[in-house]
Amino acid sequence: MASHVSVIKYSGGDEGDAVRTGTTTAGGRHPSRMELGVIGLGRMGQIVANRSMEAGHDVVAFDLSAEATATAAEAGAEPADSVADLCERLDGSDDEDGDGKRIWLMVPAGDAVDATLADLEPHLDADDVVVDGGNSRFRESVRRSEETDAAYLDCGTSGGPASAAEGFSLMIGGPEWAYEALVPVFDAVATGPDGHDRMGESGSGHYVKMVHNGVEYALMQAYGEGFELLTEGRYDLDMESVARTWNNGAVIRSWLLELCEEAFREEGSDLGDVADHVAGGSTGTWTVEEALEQEVPVPIIYQALAERFDSRNEGRFSRRLANRLRYGFGRHEVARRSDGE
């Protein structure tokens, strides 16, 4: 990384030092307190707000749902009743040097991101930084970075609601100075300093997250097929016991395997009424499309994606486990089989 230096406004510190300025470089991480606007307070957005506040940062929060905004306020955030109001509240604490607003979007990928940026546009300039923490397609992130007056950071976020206590893994693309400006908040939202990094130029954060999701599809499929063979095989096995044993010292131990153990413990070795229907698929599709464009073979990821699409027809145990694993890491709704299936 280059040795670009940016000046950031921090609030907090010693009594009587409510506002002070500090500097951060590519080689140094400033531990001081910051002010952050969070737009989008669903499960993931609430975690961003809560973890930022737990680390001592000030949060101004807004969601289209008044109930979600009220929940953030109860946790200590300053509530805003609109995007414009949020920007005004952030403006209200700027010092005379005007170091800029720091705003984190955690809204659904697609039209919602563009709509939010359109609402923000009258209130942004080149000193401001906007983080898109959703699962946006990397090409769209490149476009938005070019069209947005503020510095735009595309932030791939992995870990899901289950990572509320430990923190996320953050893969970030965009201008280096903007990344450095948000390091204190990234430290708070991620698992710590090692839980985030700047991947490269605009689009690279969501690009890395896209490939991450393709790998995730393949790993889920591999675990599912292995447990399906064990279930249909020659021994009467306790799948929770198998998963627990594998996850203590075995080569294939992982968090996904911990979630397999959780699924078997809560649903039973036969997964009870969990349906063979695995939702999602957009990021896996993007991964396969990019692989085709780059002429890189990804047969395992492709097959996992095909299995996911085929699960909308009739059922296999491996896909039923994948269905339940999506609840484990993302708290996605578990499709259930109706009686007689």
Task: Describe the protein.
- This protein has 13 helices and 10 strands.
- The strands form 2 sheets. The protein has an 8-stranded mixed sheet, with helices on both faces. Strands 1-2 form a two-stranded antiparallel ribbon.
- β6, α4 and β7 form a beta-alpha-beta unit.
- The termini are far apart.
- Helices cover 45% and strands 15% of the residues.
- By secondary structure, it is an alpha/beta fold.
Query: What structural class do helix, strand and pairing data support?
Result: alpha/beta
Number of strands: 10
Strand content: 15-25%
Distance between the termini: 56 Å
- Estimate the helix proportion, in percent: 40-55%
Low-confidence parts:
1-31, 92-97
In what order do the strands lie side by side in the largest sheet?
5-4-3-6-7-8-9-10
Rg, alpha carbons = 22 Å
